[in-house]
Amino acid sequence: MRIPKSLICLALSLGMLSCATHRERFFVVADQNPSFPGGDKAMQAFIGNNLNLPYLEGSCNVQGRIVVQFFVEENGRLTHLRVVKPMYPAYDEACLKMLKKMPRWIPARQNGKPVRFQYILPIFIHPQ
Question: For 39-71, how does the pLDDT look when each residue is reduced to its tens digit (9 = 90+)?
């Protein structure tokens, strides 16, 4: 039987969710979700220190949210970075550039084994 190229999501027992696209398997919920080394506070600090937003005319009052999606691979590397809810093209690019600088994450685990995980991260932009 041939697997369709569209996204196929399979609800697994215990509320787990696994998805397959083009025969690649990944998780969106796992026994242990992936995490930034040092936890959420360390990730917030990393973003604050490494997100270099360009100056835009009248940008002192700009605020909003950019949502990015990526995969945390079994080895903790971030791949397939993309903006799923953009704000301004220059800000979107700055967010992707910052994500490329991130260290390897602690990978998700399912049944004790590291697994590929799709992660969605909102990044909030606030006036200084």
Answer: 999 999 999 999 998 887 665 667 899 999 999
Amino acid making up residue 102: M
Q: How far apart are CA 91 and CA 69, in angstroms?
A: 15
Question: What angle in degrees, to the nearest 10, is found between the helix axes of 40-50 and 89-101?
Answer: 120
Whole-model pTM above 0.85?
Answer: no
Please give the C-alpha separations between residue 15 and each of 10, 18, 29, 85, in angstroms, as whole numbers: 10, 10, 8, 27
- What pLDDT was estimated at residue 71? 98
Q: Dihedral sign, CA of 68, 27, 14, 110? A: negative
| Gap between the Cα atoms of 75 and 93, Å rounded | 25
